[in-house]
């Protein structure tokens, strides 16, 4: 997992240069993004808060995700991660935020949303980018790939790029 630590350290350099903070909103990663970030000494200067909202109830309670979204599009969807990332920004008070919701497996998948389906959303102020991924491997592999994608996307966003899109 040293690569995750390296990515988190790179994120810290970028955010420190901007005097900016980041907040996380996590479901399938269970706090893995926040854990990777806080491995870095001095991360308290740029990591504001982490929300682990595994249940839909907590996504609504802590992040303000509208309950009707779960029935309309499901927890693993663009709409839900976009609401999660906005809730994390509000709740954490950070300029940057990332949110993740996915199906890590081994069960829980469907033909429309197979195991390994993960939605990530990144926000910088008013700017928001969301992307769907389909990761392979077992539960741990899906979770690690999700954390890596979250960190890479934050680095890209903080560097003025669109995460994974250019």
What report would you give on this structure?
This protein is α/β, with parallel strands linked by helices. The chain is 44% helix and 20% strand. The chain has a five-stranded mixed beta sheet with strand order 2-1-3-4-5, sandwiched between helices. Helix 2 links the parallel strand 1 and strand 2. Helix 1 (2-18) packs parallel to helix 6 (139-158). The longest helix has 20 residues, at 139-158. The chain is globular and about 45 Å long. The mean pLDDT is 96.
End-to-end C-alpha gap: 26 Å
Q: What is the CA-based Rg, rounded? A: 14 Å
- Order of helices and strands, N to C? HEHEHHHEEEH
Q: What would the principal axes of the Cα set say about the shape?
A: globular
**Biggest beta sheet summary:** 5 strands, mixed
Unreliable stretches (pLDDT < 50, length at least 5) are: none
Helix content: 40-55%
Largest beta sheet: strand ordering: 2-1-3-4-5
Structural class: alpha/beta
Number of helices: 6
- Average pLDDT: 96
Percent range for β-strand residues: 15-25%
Question: Quick one: how many beta strands?
Answer: 5
């Amino acid at each position: 997992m040293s690569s995750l630590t390296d990515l988190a350290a790179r994120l810290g350099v970028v955010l420190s240069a901007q005097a900016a903070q980041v907040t996380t909103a996590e479901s399938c990663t269970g706090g893995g993004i926040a854990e990777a970030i806080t491995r870095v000494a001095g991360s308290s200067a740029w990591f504001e808060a982490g929300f682990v909202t595994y249940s839909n109830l907590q996504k609504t309670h802590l992040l303000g995700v509208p309950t009707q979204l779960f029935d309309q599009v499901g927890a693993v969807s663009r709409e839900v991660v976009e609401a999660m990332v906005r809730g994390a920004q509000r709740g954490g008070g950070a300029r940057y935020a990332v949110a993740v919701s996915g199906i890590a497996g081994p069960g829980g998948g469907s033909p429309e949303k197979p195991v390994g389906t993960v939605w990530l959303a990144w926000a910088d102020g008013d700017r928001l980018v969301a992307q769907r991924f389909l990761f392979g491997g077992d539960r741990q592999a899906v979770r690690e790939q999700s954390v890596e994608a979250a960190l890479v996307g934050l680095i890209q966003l903080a560097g003025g790029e669109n995460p994974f899109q250019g």
